Amino acid sequence: MRIYPDAAQAAEGCALQFAEWLVEALDARGRASVAVSGGSTPRLMLAVLARAGLDWSRIQLFQVDERGVPPGHAQSNYKMIRECFLEPAGFPEQNAHRMFGELDAAEAAARYATEIGQVLGAEPFDVVQCGMGADGHTASLFPGDPLALDTRGVVAGLWAADKQQWRITLLPKPILAARHLCALATGADKAPAFGRALRGPADLLATPAQLLRGAEWFVDEPLFSSAV
Ligand code: 6PG
Question: Residue of 63, 96, 130, 152 with fewest CB within 10 Å of its CB?
Answer without folding.
Answer: 152
